[in-house]
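Hi everyone,

Forwarding the result from last night's run.
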Amino acid sequence: MVSLEQVEAMIKAQLPDAKVKVEDLGGGDHLQAIVVSGEFAGKTKVKQHQMVYAAVQEAMATEEIHALALKTYTPEAWQAAGQVV
């Protein structure tokens, strides 16, 4: 089973500027990640999610991660939502 810290590290390896929070939604293989990255600027939500899924592709292929819910934001969108990066 992959740890939350390992998932965070995988995402940060792909998106070095990212602020990442990974939570277990149950069973250790159903996860949620909140990812804030400047690299998302100008990209659709679909493209943003594809960028994150590319980072965890191997863990998903081996079913270490069965499901990954994503919430992606640019730093500006994150601040507009009332959050602090």
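The first strand starts at residue 19 and ends at 26.

Cheers,
N.
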